[in-house]
Specification:
Layout (H helix, E strand, L loop, with lengths): L13 H5 L1 H19 L9 E5 L10 H9 L3 E3 L15 H26 L3 E6 L1 H12 L4 E7 L11 H9 L8 H8 L12 E5 L20 E4 L11 H11 L19
Parallel strand pairs: 1-2, 1-3, 3-4, 4-5, 5-6
Helix pairs in contact: 4-5
Protein name: Pimeloyl-ACP methyl ester carboxylesterase
Pfam families: Abhydrolase_1 (PF00561)
Keywords: Coiled coil
């Protein structure tokens, strides 16, 4: 089996990583200032929208986004799977893959619950690691998923993220495998079958301090819409431009989704 890449991917630029929190704070302030203007964003049809937090986060980390989506007539829902973090030490890529499958199974049960409750397809929004979950789930169970939006998800090589080193420190392991390249290939969502049958929107940031822009994208053959927004990784769920884009995507008529039209972005953004 040929390894997919010989050279270790380049992580985000250091200046972007170090400025993550200050930039997120500015984005949060911008959100508060623009909330009155965001009321003019696209309105929903009250279909269920499930939001999945990033690594280490729980439902509290997506609270503001959920409340705003509710105000825009989307039935925003928590993922109800606790904190997105392993309670045991991850010593290898195999351990990390097992953890991901465990969380994916929990998420699938939550989607099944909402599908039975609403009798409608579910839209999924996944932030960071949560984006990998929703993308994989949509590929495996497209009959229950209406649309997928990922926010700064590391679709590519995890070594191209600052989170790779963080996970090693948190779990005091090296996240190494006897065959590291094979483990990395198994982790990558971009290597899964494409094009995707569920409409997929990839929102990423060229200035992301945790996920390198190259690793946040899917290949062209995946048929996903890619939208670049200058934002911090931590601020992707509190960035007013991201809110506007999410509403634009979710409000599309089911089965008639199209590429994002930049002319729909208001001048104040």
């Amino acid at each position: 089996m040929q390894s997919y890449q010989k050279k270790t991917p380049t992580p985000p630029k250091l200046r972007h990583s170090l400025s993550e929190l200050p930039r997120a704070a500015i984005e949060g302030q911008a959100l508060l200032l623009t909330l009155p203007l965001l009321r003019s964003a696209a309105k929903g049809d009250n279909h269920p929208v499930l939001i999945v937090p990033g690594f280490g986060g729980g439902d509290g980390s997506t609270l503001l986004l959920r409340k705003w989506l509710t105000s825009q007539n989307f039935a925003s829902k928590t993922w109800d799977c606790g904190r997105n973090m392993a309670t045991y030490r991850l010593r290898s890529i195999a351990d990390a893959l097992n953890f991901r499958q465990e969380m994916l199974a929990k998420l699938n049960r939550r989607v099944e619950q909402l599908y039975a409750e609403y009798d409608r397809k579910i839209s999924l929004i996944g932030w960071s690691l949560g984006g990998l979950y929703v993308d994989q789930l949509a590929q495996e169970y497209p009959e229950r998923i209406r649309q997928v939006i990922t926010l700064g998800a590391p679709h590519g090589d995890p070594r191209g993220t600052a989170a790779w080193s963080l996970m090693q420190r948190v779990y005091r392991g090296k996240l190494s495998d006897p065959d590291l390249e094979r483990g990395i290939a198994a982790w990558r969502t971009s290597d899964k079958p494409s094009p995707r049958t569920v409409p997929t929107t990839v929102i990423y940031s060229p200035t992301d301090g945790l996920v390198a822009p190259k690793e946040a994208r899917l290949p062209t053959s995946a048929g996903a819409a890619h939208i670049a927004i200058n934002a911090s990784h931590c601020g992707l769920t509190i960035n007013p431009r991201v809110y506007w884009l999410i509403a634009n995507r979710l409000a599309q008529t089911e089965g008639k989704e199209s590429d994002f039209c930049m002319s729909t972005k208001p001048c104040w953004l």
